[in-house]
Amino acid sequence: MTVPIKKYLLTGLLAWLPLTLTIWVLLWLVGLLDAIFGGFLTGLSALTPASTGDLIEQLRHIPGLGVILVFSALLVTGALVSNVAGRWWLSQWGKIFTRIPVFKSIYNSVKKVSDTLFSSNGNAFRTAMLVQYPRAGVWTIAFQTGTPGGEVAGHLGPDLVSVYVPTTPNPTSGFFLMLPRAEVIELNMSVDEALTYVISMGSVAPSSAVGISSK
Predict the structure, then answer these.
(1) DSSP 3-state assignment of 187?
(2) Per-residue confidence (pLDDT) for residue 175, from 0 to 100
(3) Strand partners, 177
(4) Is pLDDT above 80 for 48?
């Protein structure tokens, strides 16, 4: 009996690949944060007395300390900003940043996008859809990001949706489209399932049976 070596190798690769990639991404993230923290320590050592140099050098060689500090800073910041006093201080910082030339354009743009994407009351990237792209009769997965507003809505008219069409297999790049609501199909699958479907190029379909409804 012939041993299916090729089949076993492929099966073994598929078994180890998710775990290996996950560990690789985590190690890359830890290395990145440690490098940023190391750069901060280098600048700090230049400003502090020579007597503290040994302590700073010891901190530099603690693996994963950058991750712990970033996590702690995010946790403390979130706790502070969750109360009235913290929100007031945050608004004051925002006013200072928005008065700095060049910096204010970047800060305002990033803040608007982050507020839209991560707001608990927003609808961005909470609904997966089927849209016809790049031409009629060809369907792909998209994610609703909102509805057109302002001058754009005045030119296009009512009852449109704004969607993001991710590329495959890298969903971090894609296309922004504004389509009539009647021409999209809202899916019951979760955003995670839809992303998996896109990244796998359609080879990993959602495990649960889902229905669809035209909007």
Answers:
(1) strand
(2) 93
(3) 163
(4) no
- Identify the domain containing residue 72 by its residue range: 1-82
- What are the distances in angstroms from CA 82 to CA 78, 85, 113, 185? 6, 9, 20, 37
Alpha-carbon span 50 to 39, nearest angstrom: 17
Q: Among the three residues 63, 95, 121, which one is the final residue of a domain in this structure?
A: 121
Give the model confidence (pLDDT) of 12-30 as tens digits. Answer: 777 787 778 778 877 887 7
The pLDDT value given to residue 123: 59
73 and 90 inside one domain: no
How far the first Cα of the chain sits from its last, in Å, is 56
Question: Same structural domain for residues 74 and 103?
Answer: no
**Confidence (pTM):** 0.54
Q: Are 101 and 150 within one domain?
A: no
The domain total for the chain is 3
Q: How far apart are CA 143 and CA 209, in angstroms?
A: 19
